Amino acid sequence: MSSAKDVKFSLKVTMNNQKTKVLFAEADSDFTDVLISFLTMPLGRIVRVLKKHFGEEEAVRIGSLTTLYNGLANLDSVHFWTKGCKEALLDPMSSFRNECLKLKLDVSDTQPIDQFTCYHSCCIPTSTKVLRTSNYFDSATCICGKTMSRVAGWKDTQAANNDGVFTRKKASFIISDDLKIFPNTTGFIQTLSTLEITDKDVGEPINVTFGFNEFMDLLKGSLLSPTPLSDIILNKRKVELGTTTPKTEPGVLLHAMEKEATSANSNKMILKVMVQKSTNKLLFAQSEEDFIDFLCILLAIPIGGVECLLGGNACLKNIDNLYKSVANINGDKYLVTQDMKNRLVKPKLLHGYISGNPILPLSEESCPRYQNIIAQKAVWFSSVKFVKGQGKYIGGPTLYKITDDLTVTHFCMGSILSHLKDRKIPSSDVKELELEIGLQEVIS
């Protein structure tokens, strides 16, 4: 590929007679693969790529996700176990990294995977290709005991069996304005019924060119707009800026997930919350590093994983539709494998992101030991980023302040007193509550 920004897709779009709304689009496997890849992106990476593309002012602000990301970005590196911990959080990798590298267009800005080579004189020079990476693949040790050298930039672009990345290469799909997708083999009447349109609504189809900028607009629109395809194709790209805050029902949980999480369900955290007595308004919370570690892990969860935790009801309508579409599709017929469907609807985190004492029922990919058969060498991978333990991000013992929008800062008594004084809130009007944070609370 010369450049991601040079890649173009041809999309056949059908609008209504008034040409004010996209009714549906017909897309090939390559286009649909890029759309499905939205589900594989960790929350922190979504914030990162949108800020990189649109700039600080134009980037999407989703509830407290952006303020959480910015707060951790502004938190001094001294509060993390290592500088690498902070870097891994602000640029979280996906467990679908290898698949994203094979996409015709990768909006997640995935970087090529590195190789490791042992150049020691007692060894035969050879390379070990790491097809699915990990937070622990910072350094590699050869069986000879010497540290292997990193060779950057290896990229596997050959899809298995000449098939697509997520969908079968020859499959085509119908995509609605709110990002429902289904195979283009459903039949005329059923398609009209599924899309809730009549033949009187249908105008003439047109061909539309979709490139990198349009996909970035689509990613942004999928989080903000009820009609992202119409906004882009009809040149309504100026999606109203501001914050979209998903409204979830308290305790919306998957029963199966609750059963799987019996061990995690017993884990609890204590959060001290300061409330103004006269107004019963939350002022701030204070916590030790365990609660901040939980907030850190949120950035590493793929948005498809959020959908899984919330049963496909994350209240981001377009992402809900996209997730449910993949969950309902015939994986054996339209996706590359049924196993791929299983990975998409219940994605794992990349190895190394989950803490040693998690509350959320998350799972991560295993960290295999790679064997170079030709040179008969075993290779062990380790990490300089997580030297203090699995998924341990924040150092302690110390206190942190969390505001209502999840902005995390170092706890400073002087600045808090000054803030209360500026707002004319006497300390006598402040009460402290202790909250027990368990599975239902972290899901909410």
Portion of residues in helices?
Answer: 25-40%
Q: How many DSSP E strands?
A: 18
Largest sheet: 5 strands, antiparallel
Total separate domains: 1
* Rounded radius of gyration (Å): 24 Å
The average pLDDT value, as a whole number, equals 81
By secondary-structure content and strand pairing, the structural class works out as alpha+beta
Taking strands numbered 1, 2, ... along the chain, how are they ordered across the largest sheet? 9-8-2-1-10
Low-confidence stretches: 157-162, 237-243, 248-265, 371-376
**How many alpha or pi helices?**
17
Question: What is the molecular shape?
Answer: globular
Query: Termini separation (Å)?
Result: 42 Å
Strand content: 15-25%
Organism: Erythranthe guttata (Yellow monkey flower)
Pfam families: DUF674
Protein name: DUF674 family protein
Quick rundown:
It is built from 17 helices and 18 strands.
